């Protein structure tokens, strides 16, 4: 039995594991930065349309309701939560979430 293919497979697996562990911090940081950008962008859009949104704390993308060019967020602001639908080149559809 030739151990060379198995050795290459083990080395490849080990490399992928090490890369995923090593990049874990970078991915977590990128995700936190993306979340912060989402909160800022969605919060700014809601405020620009006249809705009060003091101290936005999170903008959670609702994948099940989103589609290409139709992104749905749950935006949490101080004292109010909005369901926000972002569609390119249109005003956002903003409704107060219950």
Automatic annotation (TrEMBL):
Q: Please list which residues make up the signal peptide.
A: 1-32
Record's superkingdom?
Answer: Bacteria
Q: Which UniProt keywords apply?
A: Signal
Protein name from the UniProt record: DUF1161 domain-containing protein
Q: Which species does this protein come from? A: Mesorhizobium ventifaucium
